[in-house]
Amino acid sequence: MIARLTGKVSEKSDDHAIVDVGGVGYLVHLSQLALASLPPRGEAVTLRTYTHVREDALDLFGFASEDEEAVFRALIDVKGVGPRAAQNILSGIEARELAQAVAQGDVARLTKVQGIGKKTAERLVVELKEKLVALARAAGPAKARPGADAVEQLRTALVNLGYKPAQADGAADALRDGAEGKKLDELLREALKLLRG
């Protein structure tokens, strides 16, 4: 089992990156938030990974933090949530925020995440409440970042995803007015919709 990779970012795509480790390129599936935190191409990176083995495939899923990996592993223990679905969920909500929502039984917050319907949200709360309560406590109260900070972080995230600085500036400027009180994951989703037309 491959638990960690250290190498250079070779390529980035919408849902994965290729990490060059000693001349071997590993395709690592990543959430949008993890992709946004990657350094630019050619730069060194270390990723925690989960190896998913099936009869017809061997997939690597990567994480930007221990928290993201812990929540991913908890999610895939839930009936009906596979690695791809867990990754998609973590593209729509930060790991600690998801842990808080589950611990507080906040079904309404969970259903705002793409890919989580009401039944799935209720199942997550029932099955994961005990597992994620420690992470939720560590997260403390959710804090909204000031709008200007979030817009600057959005711009950096878009450049890290491979968009040209001018494209990142355009998307960030378009979302600046409504950014107050929004978190980076929300702004990133909106910006990606804008950029992809």
Counted by DSSP, the helix tally is 9
As a percent range, the share of helical residues equals 40-55%
Taking strands numbered 1, 2, ... along the chain, how are they ordered across the largest sheet? 1-2-3-5-4
Q: Give the percentage of residues in beta strands.
A: 15-25%
CATH superfamily of the largest domain: 5' to 3' exonuclease, C-terminal subdomain
Spell out the helices and strands N to C: EEEHEEHHHHHHHH
Mean pLDDT: 85
Structural class: alpha+beta
Number of domains: 3
State the distance separating the first and last CA atoms. Answer: 39 Å
How would you characterize the largest beta sheet?
Answer: 5 strands, mixed, barrel
* Oligomeric organization of the protein chains: single chain
Features:
197 residues, alpha+beta, OB fold (Dihydrolipoamide Acetyltransferase, E2P), DNA polymerase, domain 1, Helicase, Ruva Protein, domain 3, five-stranded mixed barrel, 9 helices, 5 strands, globular
